[in-house]
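Issue: ligand-bound run for phosphoric acid mono(formamide)ester - logging full I/O for the record.

Environment: standard queue, default settings, no custom constraints.

Inputs:
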Amino acid sequence: MKHLLSTADLSKQDAVLLLDTAAQMAATQSREMKKLPTLRGRTVVNLFYEDSTRTRISFETAAKRLSADVINFSAKGSSVSKGESLKDTALTLHAMGADAVVVRHQASGAPHMLAHAGWLDAAVVNAGDGMHQHPTQALLDAFTIRRHLVGSGSDEGTAGRDLAGLRVAIVGDVLHSRVARSNVRLLHTLGAEVTMVAPPTLLPVGIESWPCRVSFHLDETLERTKPDAVMMLRVQRERMSGGAGGAFFPSVQEYSRKFGLGSQRLGMLADHAIVMHPGPMNRGLEISAEAADHPRSVIVEQVANGVAVRMAALYLLLAGDERNTL
Ligand code: CP
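Outputs:
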């Protein structure tokens, strides 16, 4: 595989290879010499048309730790504001010799276009496109789940392992979530059972064809399914009609009461269960401050694991011809 565009493109073998490589990368990060020479002389461009904190910084960190040259491009302050097209931006990056382009774009399908239109001769990594996909987020989520809930809890104990038999509840604004779409495919490929929990107005048309169960009731799901991991989704009010929620969203109080994770619901979780959130969080809406900062929360660890997972993705895409490839 030359690009990483969607978790739907990953076989179980690809996904486990990515997770195992990420574990090896994580091991290098705990040693004194964090920097590896692997991508010396290669250029990684971070092409961000939408805002980001975690994804952009961790791709930059990952590329630098592999000794690549990194160019950060943000649409704000670039010639995009003068009307430059994606094609002309891509041709410019090609002229500058980009080996990999990490792209976040508000339009679903933009990374696919960059990868396949013939404008670039570079590996394209999707860092989030519209409501479509965010594959490295799902990979870092799977990596975090595997580290906590599979084998002995050590990376050696998890090598080669999938997520068979684990139950994951993904809760909240599924409709607008590329994180949910990426996770459902990857978790299913890795053998986990997924339940999407949301009000009917925050579920997409066609969810019946997704490889998951669907529930409108969080308490019932927690009681009946006993999930090993609960992944809370950000309520994306900026993507809702009128920008404030419109018809999708009941009220902050009602949403929080029915679908928020707070102290009472924390008490319903199994002792080993972990609490996840891709960030950024709306504290007090989909997750309380107590739940976000609770010892069961692995939210900060998810961010740290993102660096190892993105190192693995860049390594396998750019240096994989010498080793195993995606
Ligand atoms: N999870 C995630 O994609 O966060 P950012 O928008 O900060 O990159």
